[in-house]
Design a protein that fits this description.
Number of strands: 11
Strand content: 15-25%
Radius of gyration: 19 Å
Number of helices: 10
Number of domains: 2
Largest sheet: 6 strands, parallel
Oligomer: single chain
Structural class: alpha/beta
Order of helices and strands: EHEHEHEHHHEHEHEEEEHEH
CATH superfamily of the largest domain: NAD(P)-binding Rossmann-like Domain
Shape: globular
Strand order of the largest sheet: 1-11-8-7-5-6
Helix content: 40-55%
Distance between the termini: 49 Å
Bound molecules: NADP nicotinamide-adenine-dinucleotide phosphate
CATH topology of the largest domain: Rossmann fold
């Protein structure tokens, strides 16, 4: 492997350390402990692991976290009622509804109903709009984590051609939105399932961000020599976690690459903690 490994565990540990120190100072000054309310509906195994990891990370950094577990029979109204309750609870600073929701529930009205100043995932349309206008309240955790990794590695995005593969509201679109902001100044292409000759597009990328959800979708031959490769994908294949990039082949071509696991995943959690602290600070 010739690429430098971008170590998400290491970088996220530095972010968490900073959050811990700032939380301790904030709580000492105000008597307020930042509080995240996490809502988990149903028993999707991956979601349970994600929520547990988020809760554990909160506690380690001195934040309070409360998990609301709802059965997979929960109705849309019951879920909306819980969000309304958490919106009104002044002791709660951040609200997170773990996605995906069971099929019978519509996530859009649920996410829309979270108070924007408690929307620590950064999915509310108001926060998406503020982010796109370059005056963010909360940045969405995964794309923000990627930007933090690039900054930590001193990877200058100015004038670089960044190709984002995937256009979800959670990863692809906000990722492209952050890369194109003034200050980041990348030239951005977004690819999706209807993109023609996607391999040719990816081959032009100085920075590749893969958020497709297909194991090893981006193969080594698609990587331009010395490109930076950020693999957001988390796919379970025979009980092993695999990214959206064919890691070993891509690492032979790239100048820097994130692993899966231990890349973007830990950054997502660290940025959530930062957003929860920010929400608490903005509430006093
Ligand atoms: P998603 O909502 O399923 O979106 C996937 C995107 O990939 C869509 O825009 C889709 O295009 C595109 N796509 C699918 N097949 C394609 C193909 N053959 N060619 C080109 N594009 C294709 O997924 P997501 O929520 O963005 O997540 C993507 C991956 O990141 C998943 O593996 C997920 O587990 C992972 N993830 C990781 C973290 C983390 O913390 N590391 C956080 C969130 C998600 P269309 O729009 O045309 O359908």
């Amino acid at each position: 492997m010739s690429a430098k490994l971008i170590d998400g565990k290491l970088i996220s540990a530095a972010v968490r350390k900073q959050v811990t120190e700032e939380t301790s100072a904030f709580t000492a000054e105000t008597g307020v402990t930042p509080h995240l309310a996490a809502v988990l509906v149903g028993d999707d195994p991956a979601s349970q692991v994600y929520v547990r990891n988020k809760e554990r990370a909160c506690r380690k950094c001195g934040l309070k976290s409360t998990l609301y577990r709802l059965s997979d029979k929960t109705t849309q109204q019951q879920l909306m009622d819980l969000v309304a309750e958490l919106n009104a609870d002044e002791s709660v600073h951040g609200i997170l509804v773990q996605l995906p929701l069971p099929d019978h529930l519509d996530s859009t009205p649920v996410l829309d109903s979270i108070r924007p100043d408690k929307d620590v995932d950064g999915f509310h349309p108001e926060n998406v709009g503020l982010m796109l206008q370059g005056r963010p309240r909360f940045l969405p955790c995964t794309p923000h984590g990627v930007m933090k990794m690039l900054a930590h590695e001193n990877i200058d995005t100015t004038g670089k051609h960044a190709v984002v593969i995937g256009r979800s509201d959670i990863v692809g679109k906000p990722m492209a939105g952050l890369l194109v902001q003034k200050g980041s100044d990348a030239t951005v292409t977004i690819c999706h399932s209807r993109t023609t000759d996607i391999a040719a597009v990816i081959r032009q990328a100085d920075i590749v961000v893969a958020a497709v959800g297909i194991p090893e979708f981006v193969t080594g031959d698609m990587i331009k020599p010395d490109a930076v490769v950020i693999d957001v994908g988390i796919n379970r294949v025979n009980d092993r976690l695999v990214g959206d990039v064919e890691f070993s082949a891509a690492a032979e071509k790239a100048s820097a690459i994130t692993p899966v696991p231990g890349g973007v995943g830990p950054m997502t959690i660290a940025m959530l903690l930062g957003n929860t602290l920010k929400a608490a600070k903005q509430s006093v």
